[in-house]
Design brief:
It comes from Monodelphis domestica. Helix content is about 55%, strand content about 5%. By secondary structure, the chain is mainly alpha-helical. Bound molecules: tryptophanyl-5'AMP.
Length: about 325
């Protein structure tokens, strides 16, 4: 079902094969034939290899295949934990530069800042923020009648709530919201380089665990050299027993576009220490042009602000009729 919906939405069979099944949606009629991609990223901290391979890279492909695509810099979500206002403000511009450098094209996607779109006061603190977070995420998605949401595996529980709320609303007020479907890539859970049982995360206190897109080649090489694997020196792929090495193989395949089999074939004769260097080099090569483009874009803050301003206006236009209809249905 999920594949069927996505093919319909994007009209591209070949592309969709790159995705795992995702979370299947019930066959809710797509009101007014709207098929829409929506996703979001927090502006706190520089995106890492997990954000890139689990989400951003697929966003770049999706904007080429689908005609209605929105990406939100979810600054409201980021204030569920304390933020320095000046740092947050700069981080919003920085992540705009990162997304554009990764290939998000403002002519093809609506790139916007979440807080500029929402007019209600949503300031949250501490625990309340953490409780209301998934509801805010559901609102993000449903506000645009989004049909598909490309995310990493860690967002699947939040997606369940969004789906549940859409279904409840439809049951009470009639079929209105498409029940949104998650799109997961083969890299839906990139693991930490220090603890391959955990996901790679921005907030990991161990700086060696996470490779950021702006890391220098030396930093990337050091992080991979120090990556935790196991005591077997051969390079094999078995995610259930050899988490660390398999994470390397997954990353290697993803950044080079090779299959797992090709990667394993190429690594015959290498021990894991040598293999880590090969993977690091592939990641360095992948990130080099992105890193250069980030530097270039960060010099032009005016352009970054303009992109967000234009994106916000477009997002407002899309959300307006949905809000109006919801109010009418509810009886406001
Ligand atoms: N180790 C990893 N492996 C694979 N994918 C990963 C990894 N780490 C992160 N991701 C994915 O990166 C995207 C952005 O992450 P955020 O934590 O900012 O993502 C978040 O904090 C969201 N709650 C932001 C959000 C707010 N509203 C939304 C509406 C739709 C979709 C997303 C949102 C995500 O897709 C995330 O799954």
């Amino acid at each position: 079902m999920a594949l069927h919906l996505v093919r319909k939405a994007c009209g591209c069979r070949r592309f969709i094969r790159a995705f795992h099944g995702g979370i299947s949606a019930d066959p809710v009629p797509q009101n007014n034939g709207i098929h829409r991609i929506f996703s979001g990223i927090q502006p706190t901290g520089i995106p890492h290899l997990g954000n890139y391979l689990g989400a951003i890279e697929s966003w770049v492909s999706l904007q080429e295949k689908c005609s209605s695509v929105l990406f939100s810099i979810v600054d409201l979500h980021s204030i569920t934990v304390p933020q320095d206002p000046a740092v947050l403000h700069q981080s919003i511009l920085d992540i705009t530069a990162v997304l554009l450098a990764c290939g998000i094209n403002p002519e093809k996607s609506i790139l916007f800042q979440q807080s500029q779109r929402k007019n209600a006061s949503l300031k949250q603190e501490g625990t309340v923020g953490l409780f209301t977070y998934p509801v805010l995420q559901a609102a993000d998605i449903l506000l645009y009648k989004s049909t598909h949401v490309p995310v990493g595996e860690d967002q699947v529980t939040h997606m369940e709530l969004a789906r549940d709320l859409a279904q409840r609303f439809n049951k009470k007020y009639g079929e209105f919201f498409p029940v949104p479907t998650s799109l997961l890539t083969t890299m839906k859970r990139v693991k930490s380089l220090r603890d391959p049982s955990a996901k790679m995360s921005k907030s990991d206190p161990d700086k060696l665990a996470t490779v950021r897109v702006t890391d220098s080649p030396e930093e990337i090489m050091m992080k991979f050299r120090k990556a935790v694997t196991d005591f077997t020196s051969e390079v094999t792929y078995d995610p259930s027993t050899r988490l660390g090495v398999s994470n390397m193989v997954d990353i290697h395949a993803a950044v080079t576009g090779l299959t797992i089999e090709e990667v394993i074939c190429q690594s015959v004769g290498l021990d894991t220490a040598q293999y880590k260097v090969v993977v690091a080099e592939a990641v360095i090569q992948k990130f080099a042009p992105i890193k250069n483009e980030i530097e270039r874009l960060k010099m032009d803050e005016g352009y970054l602000r303009k992109v967000l301003q234009v994106g916000t206006e477009k997002a407002k236009e899309l959300a307006k009729p949905v809000c109006q209809e919801v109010k009418k249905l509810v009886g406001f």
